[in-house]
């Protein structure tokens, strides 16, 4: 099966350098390009999963819990859609539930891996990971402040500009 390049990149960031912020960015850009009539809640769920883990790693347990709960709802919607993404749906949902349990139990963040069922997808993602200089399934580098605090350190000018332009456009219609 052929998967979108953005999804492959998401998997590389998720499992390689654990850059959940980039996971969010790459899938959100892809999601925006998809015709709204064909948008799957699973793309949103994967984005929410990455954002939830980003917040959990930063010890924002309230934000992490909210995001992961939303991810769980979106990813639970239709298991066959998750299977089309090469993931083992039951295992993924269990991993998210366990992570929510860990958050609620006050346990510290630890990296998780997505249960990739499609062996061709796994090989392709691992190879892309190697090409980018990352080691597949390495634990998150908790000493990397740039990685952990990317959201709060980034230049938000383009995001703010895009949102203002969208709001202006909406008001004109």
Automatic annotation (TrEMBL):
Pfam families: DUF309. InterPro entries: DUF309, TTHA0068_sf. SUPFAM superfamilies: TTHA0068-like. Coiled coil: none annotated. This is DUF309 domain-containing protein. It comes from Rossellomorea oryzaecorticis.
